[in-house]
Design brief:
With 157 residues, this protein is an alpha+beta fold. It folds into two domains: 1-50; 54-156, Rieske [2Fe-2S] iron-sulphur domain (Rieske Iron-sulfur Protein), CATH 2.102.10. The chain is built from two helices and eleven strands, in the order αβαββββββββββ. The protein binds FE2/S2 (inorganic) cluster. FE2/S2 (inorganic) cluster (FES) is lined by residues 102, 104-105, 107, 120, 122-125, 137-138.
Length: 157
């Protein structure tokens, strides 16, 4: 094979140079994939260690009313009270209103009606229906809100 360029065109790459070029392209592609994987893993890890704080939620009134009937239809009704997510639920014929913000690092807890507990999906803290810590690492109970039934509505404040 001749390495002399054709008139008016580029010289064809010799086999060794072509192999070297393709090898570099292959390595660059692998490198970009690896960097993307490292970045994605770092992002997910960071979100796990520093989850979104519920305090970043905005909106919501100081007192919120919901129909009492909603508590029969759903295991928990979520409302915003002064920008904070609050869960309103009926447990043992009493209406409760608790902050849904875990006191560990601020993840949103989930009500597990079958177990009668709140569970934090981030690091496994558990709270009883009064908000008391059943299992850490949460250091404090969930914040309680006032829930009053007045006629056909529940007033949460
Ligand atoms: Fe860590 Fe809830 S944020 S247990």
């Amino acid at each position: 094979m001749s390495d002399t360029p054709p008139a008016g065109g580029l010289a064809p790459l010799p086999d060794a140079a072509r192999r070297k070029f393709l090898h570099r392209m292959y390595n660059m592609t692998l490198g970009f994939w690896a960097l993307g994987g490292i970045a994605a893993t770092g992002y997910v890890g960071g979100r796990y260690l520093w989850p979104t704080r519920a305090g970043q939620v905005t909106g919501g009134e100081r007192a919120v009313t919901i129909p009492v009937a909603d508590l029969s239809d759903k295991p928990i009704v979520k409302v915003l009270v002064e920008g904070q997510p609050v869960g309103v639920f009926r447990y043992h014929d009493q209406v409760h209103a608790l902050s849904l913000v875990c006191t560990h690092l601020g993840c949103l807890v989930k009500w597990e009606p079958g177990q009668g507990e709140f569970l934090c999906p981030c690091h496994g803290s558990r709270y009883d229906p009064n908000g008391a810590v059943l299992q850490g690492p949460a250091p404090l109970p969930l914040k309680r809100y006032d829930a009053r039934v007045s006629g056909t509505t529940v007033i949460v404040s």
